[in-house]
Amino acid sequence: MSRKATVSLDMSVDEEAISIRLGPSEKMDKKLETQNTLSLTRQLNYYRQYQNEVVSMVGSNNTSAIFSGAIHLLSAGTSDFIQNYYINPLLRIYSPDQFSYILIRSYSTFIQNLYALGARRIGVTNLPPIGCLPAAITMFGSGTNECIPRLNQDAIYFNNKLNSTSQDLKNRLPGLKLVVFNIFQPLLDMIMNPGDNGFFESRRACCGTGILETSVLCNSRSVGTCTNATGYVFWDGFHTSEAANEVLAGDLLQQGFDLIS
Fold first, then answer.
1. Tell me: the pLDDT tens digits for 107-164?
2. DSSP letter string over 202-251?
3. What 8-state DSSP symbol labels residue 89?
4. Residue 20 DSSP class
């Protein structure tokens, strides 16, 4: 199989991908900027600027070939729910289904904008079982140590809408290869049956107390951090461990074959 030309910072022809985090609707752009989070509008502007830089280096024809052959990876929804919708009282005027609709509408527009800029190979991860994230259990589990069914149901609804919207986009946009990576089920299986994949802990994370910390609060010096993260499904309150990612990567690689074929 030939290697696909993709975009990297040094303009080498490599298997690297363009990763763009999908945040909330454009209506939230101003709020996002005040939180030091890049809105979709600004991300697209940066994307256009980078394309112009590539044109100046290799010319228009080569640039079109690079970007149309590049694999674009998007992550959609997790932070929007856990770190925004569920904790922001101003957003509770929307039901979970209505909030999902806002995100999906924003996602659809974003994909069409990327397509208009030449992107043809796009992969997007669906929502994980957000009700099983250690931080979610801590914040919304009322003292239990079990997954929260209503949060997982919100994720299932969002994922169903993501699948149907993605199929509609593929039907309407000629030449678009759009793959929805299903991370929900393989991660849920890992959480419910950790021993099947060599893990011994799937409720508590490795970092710190293992129930809430994330980002800069998580490092090897954090008090309470485990000494062997390979036995944990989660590294911190929101993110899977490197060992878990290796297991998930096998599933995702098979799902994404269409992007590299």
1. 999 999 999 999 999 999 999 999 999 999 998 988 888 999 999 999 999 999 999 9
2. SSS-SSTTSSS--GGG-STTSTT--S-GGGBSBSSSSSB-HHHHHHHHHH
3. G
4. E
Please report, for the chain, the start and end positions of each structural domain, with discontinuous segments joined by +: 1-181, 186-261
Burial of 126 (0-12, 13-18, 19+ CB in 10 A): buried
Cα–Cα distance for residue pair 165/169, rounded to 1 Å: 6
- Three state DSSP letters for 187-215: HHHHHHCHHHHCCCECCCCCCCCCCCCCH
Q: Minimal CA–CA distance to 226: which of 207, 198, 199?
A: 207
Residue closest to 98 by CA, chosen among 178, 158, 160, 47: 158
Q: Are 10 and 70 in contact (CB under 8 A)?
A: no
Per-residue pLDDT reduced to its tens digit, 158-200:
999 999 999 999 999 999 999 999 999 999 999 999 999 999 9
Tokens found for residue 123: 């992969």
CA 87/CA 48 separation, integer angstroms = 34
Predicted TM-score (pTM) of this structure = 0.84
State the helix-helix crossing angle for 60-69 and 40-58, rounded to 10 degrees: 130
Cβ count within 10 A of residue 84: 22
The torsion of the CA quartet 187, 188, 194, 197, rounded to 10 degrees, works out to -40
Q: What value, to the nearest 5°, has the Cα angle with vertex 246 and ends 110 and 259? A: 40
